[in-house]
Amino acid sequence: MKRIAFLGCLALACCGKKPAGQAVYGPNCGICHHGGSGMPGETPPLVGRVDFIAQTPEGRHYLANVLLNGLRGRFTTQGYRYNYSMPAYRDRLTDQQIADTLNWLIARGNIKPSPTITPAEVTSARAQQGDPAASYQERQLLEQKQPLFPKSMTFPQS
């Protein structure tokens, strides 16, 4: 009986509360992006990429816009081509939930200390109307300034 009680306590200790961003990510983003590694050629990876993008105010604005407005278009990242369409979460997630989700992904990347996105930055992005095509155009402009993923970096396995 003591062994069963011990195993029960151990199971509960291992199943602690998930970080807020992970809890939002799972049912909203995880269905396509899986644990953050995506599927080459089908769904782009996030872990090891969003942290790099989030280093600049323009990058953080773009990431907020993608979650708020979705993304649709063709692009290449880490040698894989994508013709991607992602839904908008503007009407599904709060600014805090979007910031938490992005920050959870950012913290899992290679950039240390990790950049962060504030709910206020998401609120600012939300004040502007957008759509998946506008997010794609913003991505193209950002990519012209600086690659959204450096060729020298590799994605962590998740």
What distance lies between the first and last C-alpha atoms, to the nearest angstrom?
A: 37 Å
C-alpha Rg (nearest Å): 17 Å
**Share of helix among residues?**
40-55%
Biggest sheet strand order reads 1-2
The major sheet is characterized as: 2 strands, antiparallel
Structural class: mainly alpha
Counting copies of identical and different chains, the oligomeric state is single chain
Which of globular, elongated, flat, extended, rod-shaped describes the shape?
A: globular
- Run of helices and strands: HHHHHEEHHH
Q: Can you describe this structure?
A:
By secondary structure, this protein is mainly alpha-helical. 49% of the residues lie in helices and 9% in strands. It is built from 8 helices and 2 strands. Strands 1-2 form a two-stranded antiparallel ribbon. α5 crosses α7. It is globular and about 40 Å long. The protein starts with a helix and ends in a 13-residue tail after the last helix. The N terminus and C terminus are likely disordered.
Protein topology:
Elements: H1 2-14, H2 20-28, H3 30-33, H4 50-53, H5 57-69, E1 71-77, E2 80-86, H6 95-107, H7 119-126, H8 132-145
Q: Any descriptors?
A:
two-stranded antiparallel sheet, globular, disordered C terminus
